[in-house]
Each structure stands twice: as structure tokens, then as C-alpha cells.
């Protein structure tokens, strides 16, 4: 009879240790997991935001306000040929509601033929707001 009650106490102690471990994990682990999930959501939003904004953009008239040839060597992405120069084109375009926005287009012939962005846009595809 004593060994049976000893086993019950041992199993109860094991169960309490498991509950303590789970309680500690919920206390300390869940904030870490939640912050990682929030971080991933923010990264996805940051990367998709230009595409979400551009999805409703159908057409507009772009007014060239000046251009400049940048005599630097760059490439469109890792592993592609280097090119020189890159043309920086300053534009102004209406965004609706009577507002206009200024932007910078950075392109060159190789970028337009072989890849979408010029390297100066760092993957944001050509149009940067000033």
C-alpha cells in the first residue's frame, strides 16, 4: 500500500513539474514568440507596401523636371554585369486630389533590357519619393 501511495505522489510531482515548466514557458516564451510573429508581419508589410500602393495606380502623366548622368559603376543585381552610367531622371506626377509628388527614376539601357531595377533603387523598383 505504501508503494502505491508513493507512486501517486511521484506521478503528482512529475505532473506538477510539467505544469511548472509549461507555466514558465507561457510566461517567458510566449512574449518572444509573439514578438517574432509581429516582426515577421512588419517585414512582410514593409516589403509588400510598394506593391499594394501601386496596385490601384493605373496611369498618370509624368513631367520631367531634370536629369543627370551619374558616372559611377553599378550593377542591377548580384552576379550581373557592371554598367556605367546610370541616368537619374527627376519627375513630378499628379497623385490625385490636386496634389503632385516628386520622384526620381534611376534607369539605364541595361537595366531596362536585362532587369527591372537599377541598383540604386535597392529593389524598390525605380521610383523614389524625395
Automatic annotation (TrEMBL):
Stored InterPro entries: K_chnl_Ca-activ_BK_bsu (IPR003930)
Molecular function terms from GO: calcium-activated potassium channel activity; potassium channel regulator activity
Bilayer topology: Multi-pass membrane protein
Keywords on record: Glycoprotein, Ion channel, Ion transport, Membrane, Transmembrane, Transmembrane helix, Transport
Residues passing through the membrane, by range: 21-46
Cellular compartment(s): Membrane
GO CC terms in record: voltage-gated potassium channel complex
GO biological process, one term: detection of calcium ion
Main location per the UniProt record: membrane
Protein name per the record: Uncharacterized protein
Source organism (scientific name): Ciona savignyi
Lineage of source species: Eukaryota, Metazoa, Chordata, Tunicata, Ascidiacea
Amino acid at each position: 500500500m505504501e508503494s502505491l501511495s508513493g507512486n501517486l505522489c511521484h506521478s503528482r510531482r512529475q505532473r506538477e513539474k510539467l505544469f511548472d515548466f509549461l507555466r514558465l514557458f507561457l510566461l517567458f516564451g510566449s512574449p518572444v514568440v509573439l514578438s517574432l510573429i509581429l516582426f515577421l508581419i512588419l517585414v512582410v508589410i514593409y516589403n509588400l507596401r510598394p506593391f499594394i500602393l501601386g496596385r490601384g495606380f493605373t496611369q498618370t502623366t509624368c513631367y520631367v523636371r531634370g536629369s543627370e548622368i551619374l558616372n559611377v559603376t553599378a550593377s542591377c543585381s548580384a552576379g550581373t554585369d557592371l554598367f556605367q552610367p546610370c541616368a537619374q531622371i527627376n519627375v513630378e506626377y499628379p497623385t490625385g486630389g490636386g496634389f503632385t509628388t516628386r520622384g526620381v527614376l534611376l534607369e539605364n539601357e541595361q537595366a531596362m533590357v536585362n532587369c527591372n531595377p537599377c541598383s540604386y533603387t535597392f529593389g524598390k523598383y525605380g521610383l523614389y519619393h524625395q
